[in-house]
Amino acid sequence: MDTVFAEHLDNESRMPAGLSPSERRQPARLLRKLESSIPASDEEESGSAV
């Protein structure tokens, strides 16, 4: 398990190596946007169920 986990971490470190700093920031911005949409979506669902 330790070996597989270490290999996984190495892969994660290598994946963005070919991206520019701007390209590396873009997924983080999109993930924050998706994350912030979850509470709004939950509120809409609970409001329509009442």
Supply the key terms.
2 helices, flat, 50 residues, single chain, mainly alpha
Write the SSE topology.
Elements: H1 2-14, H2 21-49
Give the overall shape, derived from the CA principal axes: flat
Mean pLDDT over the full residue set: 87
The CA-CA distance between the termini, in Å, is 47 Å
Fraction of residues in helix: over 70%
Low-confidence spans? none
Q: How many strands in all?
A: 0
The structural class is mainly alpha
Q: Describe the biggest sheet?
A: none
The fraction of residues assigned to DSSP E strands is: under 5%
Any idea what the radius of gyration is? 18 Å
Topology order in helix (H) and strand (E) letters: HH
Would you kindly provide a written description of the structure presented here, covering whatever features stand out?
The longest helix has 29 residues, at 21-49. The N and C termini lie far apart (47 Å). The protein has helices at 2-14, 21-49. It is built from two helices and no strands. It is flat. With 50 residues, the chain is mainly α. It is 84% helix and 0% strand.
Can you summarize this structure?
The protein is 84% helix and 0% strand. The chain contains two helices and no strands.
